[in-house]
From TrEMBL:
Protein name: Alpha/Beta hydrolase protein
Classification via Gene3D superfamilies: alpha/beta hydrolase
Organism: Lentinula detonsa
AB hydrolase-1 domain residues: 76-366
GO molecular function, one term: hydrolase activity
Transmembrane stretches, start-end: none
UniProt-listed InterPro entries: AB_hydrolase_1, AB_hydrolase_fold, Carboxylesterase_BioH
Record keywords: Hydrolase, Signal
Amino acid sequence: MFTSLSVVRILTLFQLSTTCISSHTQLQGTLHRRNYFYVGEQYVNTPGTNNGSEIAFGQIYVEHLVPATVTQSLPVLMIHGHGMTGTNFLNTPDGRLGWADYFMNQGFEIYIVDQPSRGRSAWQIGVDGNQSDFDATYISSHFTAVEKFNLWPQAALHTQWPGNGTAGDPVFDNFYASTMPSLVSDKESSIKVKKAIGKLLDDIGPVILLTHSQSGQYGWILGDFRPSLIKTIIALEPIGPPFINAVFPPLTPARPFGLTEIPVTYSPPISSSSDLKPEIVPALTNASLGTTCFRQAAPARQLVNLKEIPTLVVTSESSYHAIYDPCTVEYLAQAGVPVTHVELADVGIKGNAHMMFMEKNGLEIAEKVVLEWIQNTVNK
C-alpha cells in the first residue's frame, strides 16, 4: 500500500518526467522493432605487439529498424556525411521525428550505418588513419546559420533551421554535440566503405540507397561494386564537383576518377585516372564563386555499372551545393547515368541548406521529393 509520502514522491517524479519530455517536441513515432549488428571487420596484430594479440578494424555499426507493418519490398539504406553518424536520420536536434521514422511509417525497413572509424564503428589507434573534426563556427557557417555568414550568394535565402544555428542555442548545441571526428582521407574512407557496406549489401540483398554529402561518392562506388543490389540511388547534395574542390579554398584537385577517390568501372576501360581527359564546361564555371566545372572530353567514357540504376540528386535552395551540383549532374549524365536533378526551390520547397532532412520542412522533402521518386521509379 502506498503511503501519502510515497504518492507525493511518485507524483513529483511523474511531474519531473513530463517536464523533461515536454522540453522537447515529442511526437508519437512508428511502432517498430530495432536490432543492431556489425559487419566488415578484419583482424590485425595489435599495434606494438608481436605476441599474437589481435584487434578488429574496418567494421561498421548497422542499425536495423523494422516497422510493425512492412508494406514495401525494398529497404532503405541510409549513409550519413562527414563529421556525422547515423543518428542524423533518427530524429532532429529539436526532437521532431526524423526520416527513419517517416519512411518506416510508409512501410519501409530501414538500415542506418555509422561509417568505418566513426561513431559506433570503432577507430583503432595505430591502425586507422588520422582524424579531424569540425569546429562550431564551421558547422554554423556551412550548415545551420549560413544566412549569418553569407559565404556564398544563396546563403541569404536560408530560413529552415530550427533555431538560430549558433553555439549557445539549445538546438544547435544538441546537434553539434552529435558530431564526430572523421578520417581525414576520403580515399581511406572510400576503401573501407566499399568493403564493409559491400559486405552488408551481400548480406541483406537489394536496397534503395540514400546518401548525403560525403557519402555521395560512396553511392557511385557501391553502385559500381554491387550494381544488382542497388535499385536506385538518392543522393542528397553529393560531394563534388568532378575532379576539383569548389567554393571554399583551397580549390585543390580531388576525386581523380571524376566523382570518386578510388577507381570505378568505365567503358572503354581506364588503367589509371590520367586516362580520363577533363575539359572545362564554361556554362557551369564561375571563377568568382570558386567553381570550375569539368566534364570528360568527347567521346566520354561511360560509367557502365551505373547505367541501369535510376539516380536522383537533390539540391536545396540556400546550400553551397546550389553552386556546383548542376556540374555533378552534368558529369553523371554525360557518363550515361540515368540521373534526375531536383532543385528544391523549383518544386516550391524553399529556404533549406545542406542539412535539409533535419530542418523544419524536412518531412515535406521526404514526402514530396524522395518518396515520390521511389514510387515513380522503384514501385512503378
